[in-house]
Amino acid sequence: MNKTYLSLALVMATLSGSLAAQTLVTVNGTKIDSSEIDLQVKNLQTQSNGQVQDNPQLRQSLLQGTVTRTLVAQEARRLKLDQSAEFKQVSDQALAQAKKEGADKAKSFKHDWAVYQNELLLQAFLANVAAQNPVTEADTQKAYNEISSYYKGSDEVQLGEIITRTTADADKAIADLKAKKSFKTVAAQYSLAPQAKENGGIATDYVPLKDLQQNAPAIYNAVSSLKKGQYTAQPVQGENGVAAVFYINDKRAIKIPSYQEMAPGLTRDMQAARVDAAIQPLYQKAKIEPSN
Hints:
Elements: H1 2-15, E1 23-27, E2 30-33, H2 34-47, H3 56-78, H4 85-101, H5 109-132, H6 137-151, E3 155-164, H7 167-178, H8 183-190, H9 196-199, E4 207-208, H10 209-215, H11 217-223, E5 236-237, E6 243-253, H12 259-285, E7 288-290
Antiparallel strand pairs: 1-2, 1-7, 3-4, 3-6, 5-6
Helix pairs in contact: 1-3, 2-3, 3-5, 6-12, 7-8, 10-11
């Protein structure tokens, strides 16, 4: 899938901004045209009142999503999900309503109806995955127990950070902190982060130390033993030569939400993971050909 994604990225980099509609990629014989991506971009911009900006990254993301939906629609048809009584009923009702309103006379109806059918196929595929591999109460309870056990007895911190271009600047910030200047004042003076002048470099959210240990071990090693009000005595080296100073604005024991609070989200996450697992083989078997 990664190779396919790279190929799609190259396609979008080459064709972004092209005025002429052309085939971007073929998915098991089904062509995806640049006009389809153009329409999706236009719809997003309309829905966002112009807040969404057209750029190669957006088009790449939309193309990737269109490829996925195409694969899912093809698989749904292979499984004959479009032949179920429920699918036919919903489809027939929608078509009857479109004809009643005269929407079937519109020039774009053929395209709009194809999009609608693919959306129905997507929903049918999702329902089929849920039926074939449902998330049970026991699954959700097990996931909750694992999370509860993992975080039990651990702390979360509200971090402040000063990001500097050089280690020398980080050393100057540390010297000012040692001179009893407030962290917010020092962050506003030295940090490269634009928001530092507004929030004093202090994050709004708390982050579990367990998450830092797993995802950002260098930061975890620097701050895990610090108490509230303390800061890193040495700069923490980052990528591209930047350095950072971290500060513990607050530190508290993690309060694990109840099972009832977490269960809906856990169930959704596990079902989404099962859908992803069902889609992965479709990519592996697919013949996806970017245009030359």
